[in-house]
Specification:
There is one protein chain. A hairpin with a 5-residue loop joins strand 11 and strand 12. Among the domains are: about 220 residues, Rossmann fold (3-Layer(aba) Sandwich), CATH 3.40.50; about 55 residues; about 190 residues, no CATH class; about 110 residues, Leucine-rich repeat, LRR (right-handed beta-alpha superhelix) (Alpha-Beta Horseshoe). It has 44 helices and 28 strands. The protein is α/β, with parallel strands linked by helices. Strands 13-14-15-16-17-18-19-20-21-22-23-24-25-26-27-28 form a 16-stranded parallel beta sheet. A seven-stranded mixed beta sheet has the order 2-1-9-3-8-6-4.
Length: about 1050
């Protein structure tokens, strides 16, 4: 980007040009047009001293006047240090998604659950700066946000801060314009465009200093009267030539006019798609409210009542759909106003009609009631009577409703006085308090007045209320502006027409209108508005038929579209929830296989968006058909966690899912495809999607048949992918070849944290390949190699890698063939390694010799926290060595020795360690041949130990004597949380010993006494004893 030449005050004082207004304007236009040298010469002042009125001080005065004019226009705003003074951050986005281009704003928020893809942020004060040292400042920047997200507020905040000299000081000139201003002109030249914002250039006593950079702000592209057409607009480089406003804007964006000027455009997402992506240098998106910001917003709305914000927040959180919409600031404030009115209306026992809103139409009905009641009007005015309220409500809907309705049809959201006159709107009525709650008035730079609804959704609500009333009287199609059509009689006929139109509109602009129209037929909305807008009980004649009509709109299309999901929203507004409830019950019971009709598919897609359960994890496992899955693909894009286990899916389904994961809109973070029928072709399809996907962090393909070639495809993608952190490939027969491919990927990949390769027969060859990768890779933290036929040679290679690897935290070598020789290699690694925390050696062939070597290493190791040695043919000698290690080790918190024949001698050795060890919190001694003597010594240790929380002695033979010893320990022990004495021949006496001992122990949370031949009567006695002595403890018998 070229930089304009900047002249110092001395250079300006040496010029010989003239300072007439016409020449000053020409100079400014030349400068903005990029004619740097010529413009700078013309902008130089006459030959004066620096102290003359037309010297540099005059330039400073001119700029100061401009800044003051901007402050006057945008308002003073919050004081520095106030709650809104912090600079907001914007999300950097890479173009628009299909959802943003094609769907209604509400649909965008609902589908994405109020959030977007993880993205980099840029602070407002760095919005127009290069992102790196090698990049250049953006010329054309676009900031998008749905209606009510705060785009205009952001622009005014920026202009205010710039005028105060707090941000973007490299801009010498900021020219803010709104499309509401531009709409007042049919034609305009660049000259007049600048004059309208920068009138000081025409003052004869002021000279214009050449700015280093200038910023032109165009706020509200979605409000532009004429769509921008970049393919058919004639190029114009003459700043004095008057051309249509839309042509002027396209030429500015293209750089034909003002090529050196930075341009910042704000817009709703769908409208910003008019600008070709190649012309946009930077696109940002305004973030919605976080949970904390929603809370703060409500607190600021009701500073006088501390209980009210908390109550409003609880009501909003009770309905997920409304809560998601509250991420939009304008909707959050509207919701707060409506619920605040509801709170104040509850003066005594709750009236039958004062429900908290659970649908959009109920919420807006409360807002309508608030507006009718005159809440917030000037003090001293009498509250309106019911008759006045009803008259005012119907008059307002009749006045503004037709305007709102036809505005929706024409995508018109800003209205001027000529529009008001065209639709017969009484301008005097707009001054009333009622209309001010729905319509806002704003003066443009051309001294005309622009009107728009406070929020797009209010325009849709008023339009629906108008259509609802007009359809009872109309004999022609209300969607025909001329009023001439085939006769249409009756409300149902007109409702059918509205539903058909809404289903046909591709951009969804009638979706919320249809929701409100359906909601006006619900019993609760009728009760709320019966005294003001609706007739009591009039909904009853149509409600059932409308529900059938809406369900008839659901056709068996290949994919469930947003229009079909909107039908389910309409049924929800109508309080006809049977369809959605039946599908939700089928999801919970795993009976989705029988639901294949178009209505069921639409309901399932609807639940994927709004269900609380689906928000956490969409579980579509167990016999979901390929056809149903295919119809749900557009909705699966926005599921955070997706489970598709045990569906018998084959490779063609993976091709479909690959296309979903490759989509720019994709928000899926975790997907499980376990226990399907995926081969190498399906794995390769998923791998191709990983080359472009930027959202997926976890992929579970266990128990499939991807083989070595499937592993190769995934490995190739891991060399490029930088987001996947967990990959599960258990039971996929990848063999040593597949392990070699994965090892090659690990040498390049730095993002994968967890790799599970259990039961893949990788053998020593695969283990050696992975060991070589671990010497290089410093990102992998968990490696599962369970049941892979790895012997001492493979273990030696892996342990050699651990001597240098400083990243791996968890290693599972369960169910392999590690002998005492392999254990020696493990011991050497434990002495050298300082990062491994979890080592699982269950079900190997360590014997006493191998376990003793590991025990000696544990004495020196300071990192290991969990050691699993279950079922390793360990006896008392190794247990004694481990006991000695525990007396010195201070890092190990969990030790598993179950199913080893350590006997009473081994238990005694471990018990002696517990008397001095202060780190161990979990000890597993199931089926370890421990009798009463071992239990008695363990009891003595528990009386002293203050850190052990879990003790598992299942499957031993401690008997009554052992139970009594442990019971005595429980009377004084304060650390134990879980105790398992299952199958220990306690009998009723031993169990009662334990139960009565709990009278002094209030820390134990769970105890298992199953399999001890207690009997029913004994069980009752024990239950009563535990209920009396330790009511918070759970007992299993």
């Amino acid at each position: 980007m070229r930089k304009q030449e900047v002249h110092t005050g001395r250079e300006a004082g040496q010029g010989h040009g003239t300072g007439s207004p016409a020449e000053q304007v020409k100079a400014l236009m030349d400068l903005l047009a990029g004619k740097g040298s010529q413009g700078s010469q013309a902008l130089q002042t006459p030959d004066r001293t620096p102290d003359s009125p037309l010297g540099p001080r005059s330039n400073d005065s001119r700029m100061q006047r401009h800044r003051e004019a901007l402050l006057s226009r945008v308002g003073g705003g919050p004081e520095p240090g106030g709650p809104l003074h912090r600079l907001p951050s914007l999300l950097l986005v890479e173009g628009l998604t299909d959802l943003q281009l094609r769907e209604h704003d509400f649909t965008q928020v609902e589908a994405t659950r109020g959030g977007g893809c993880p993205a980099r942020t840029v602070a407002l004060d760095r919005l127009f700066l290069p992102l790196s040292r090698v990049s250049v400042p953006p010329r054309v920047s676009i900031t998008i946000g749905v209606a009510g997200m705060g785009k205009t507020t952001l622009v005014r905040h920026f202009v205010r801060l710039w005028a105060r000299g707090q941000v973007s000081k490299d801009f010498s000139l900021v020219l803010p314009l709104t499309f509401r201003d531009l709409n007042t002109h049919e034609k305009l030249c660049a000259d007049r465009l600048v004059r309208s914002v920068f009138p000081h250039v025409g003052e004869p006593s002021l000279a214009v200093a050449a700015p280093a950079r200038a910023l032109l702000i165009l706020d509200g592209l979605d409000e532009c009267r004429t769509p921008l057409d970049f393919s058919n607009t004639v190029a114009c480089t003459d700043p004095k030539k008057e051309i249509p406003v839309d042509h002027l804007i396209t030429n500015i964006i293209r750089g034909n006019l003002f090529p050196e000027v930075s341009v910042w455009i704000t817009s709703r997402p769908s409208a910003s798609g008019q600008i070709p992506g190649g012309l946009v240098d930077r696109m940002t998106q305004i973030r919605g409210f976080s949970e904390e910001e929603i809370k703060v917003c409500l607190e600021q709305m009701f500073p006088e009542d501390q209980a009210l914000p908390s109550w409003v927040l609880s009501q909003v959180q009770a309905d997920r759909a409304l809560y998601l919409m509250c991420t939009v600031p304008a909707f959050c404030r509207l919701t707060g106003a409506a619920l605040g009115h509801l709170w104040r209306s509850r003066t005594g026992p709750q009236d039958a009609e004062l429900w908290s809103p659970r649908t959009l139409c109920e919420l807006y009905s409360w807002y309508f009631r608030m507006a009718l009641s005159g809440e917030g009007q000037e003090k001293g005015k009498a509250s309106p009577r019911i008759e006045q309220m009803a008259h005012s409500g119907r008059k307002m809907v009749g006045t503004l409703g037709r305007l709102a309705f036809h505005g929706l049809l024409k995508k018109k959201y800003v209205f001027y006085e000529q529009d008001m006159k065209a639709f017969g709107v009484d301008l005097a009525l707009l001054q009333g308090a009622l209309c001010s709650c729905f319509l806002q008035r704003e003066e443009t730079l051309a001294s005309s007045v622009a009107y728009c609804f406070t929020h797009l959704s209010l325009q849709e609500f008023v339009a629906a209320a108008y259509y609802y009333g007009a359809s009872r009287r109309a004999i022609f199609d209300l969607f025909t502006e001329s009023g001439v059509s085939w006769p249409r009689l009756g409300f149902l006929t007109h409702f059918r027409s509205a539903a058909q139109r809404a289903m046909q509109v591709e951009d969804g602009r009638l979706d919320v209108f249809l929701r409100f129209l359906s909601g006006l037929l619900s019993p609760r909305v009728n009760a709320l508005l019966a005294s003001s807008l609706l007739a009591q009980g009039e909904h009853q004649a149509y409600r059932t038929q409308v529900a059938e009509l809406l369900q008839g709109c659901l056709r068996p299309d290949a994919a469930v579209c947003a229009r079909a999901i909107n039908v389910l929203h309409c049924l929800q507004e109508l309080q006809h929830t049977e369809l959605a409830r039946s599908v939700e019950e089928a999801m919970e019971s795993g009976a989705l296989a029988g639901l294949t009709g178009p209505a069921h598919r639409a309901a399932l897609a609807y639940l994927l968006q709004v269900s609380d359960a689906c928000a956490q994890e969409a579980n579509l496992s167990l016999n979901l058909s390929q056809g149903v899955l295919q119809s749900l693909l557009p909705q699966l894009l926005y599921c955070r966690k997706l489970r598709l286990d045990a569906n018998q899916f084959q490779d063609p389904v993976m091709e479909l899912l690959g296309s979903v994961l490759s989509g720019k809109d994709c928000r899926i973070q975790k997907i499980s495809l376990a226990e399907n029928q995926i081969s190498n072709k399906g794995a390769k399809a998923l791998a191709r999607s990983l080359l472009v996907n930027r959202s997926l962090t976890s992929l579970d393909l266990r128990s499939n048949s991807i083989g070595p070639q499937g592993a190769k495809g995934l490995a190739d993608s891991l060399k490029i992918n930088r987001t996947l952190t967990s990959l599960s490939l258990q039971k996929n027969s990848i063999g040593p070849t597949g392990a070699q491919w994965m090892a090659d990927a690990l040498k390049q990949n730095r993002s994968l944290k967890e790799l599970m390769l259990s039961s893949n027969s990788i053998g020593d060859g695969g283990a050696m390949a992975l060991a070589e990768a671990l010497k290089v890779n410093q990102g992998l933290e968990s490696l599962d190699l369970q049941s892979n036929s790895i012997s001492d040679a493979g273990v030696a290679a892996l342990m050699g890698a651990l001597c240098t690897n400083q990243a791996l935290l968890s290693l599972s070598l369960r169910e392999n063939s590690i002998s005492p020789e392999g254990a020696q290699a493990i011991a050497r690694a434990l002495r050298a390694n300082s990062t491994l925390k979890n080592l699982d050696l269950t079900a190997n062939l360590l014997h006493d010799q191998g376990a003793q070597a590991i025990a000696v290493a544990v004495t020196e190791n300071r990192a290991l926290t969990s050691l699993h040695l279950q079922w390793n043919f360990i006896q008392a000698g190794a247990a004694q060595a481990l006991g000695q290690a525990l007396q010195l080790n201070r890092s190990l918190t969990s030790l598993d020795l179950q199913e080893n024949d350590i006997g009473d001698d081994g238990a005694c050795a471990v018990a002696r360690a517990l008397k001095v060890n202060t780190a161990l919190t979990a000890l597993y001694l199931q089926v370890a041949s421990i009798g009463a003597p071992g239990a008695q010594v363990l009891g003595e240790a528990l009386a002293v130990n203050r850190t052990l929380e879990i003790l598992d002695l299942r499957g031993n033979a401690i008997g009554v004597a052992g139970a009594k010893a442990l019971a005595n320990a429980l009377k004084v022990n304060s650390s134990l949380r879980r105790l398992n004495l299952q199958e220990n021949s306690l009998g009723m006496d031993g169990a009662i010993f334990v139960a009565t001992a709990l009278s002094g122990n209030h820390r134990l949370q769970h105890i298992n006494l199953q399999g001890n031949h207690i009997g029913d009567s004994g069980a009752r006695m024990i239950s009563e004893a535990i209920k009396t002595n330790a009511p918070t403890c759970t007992v299993e018998m």
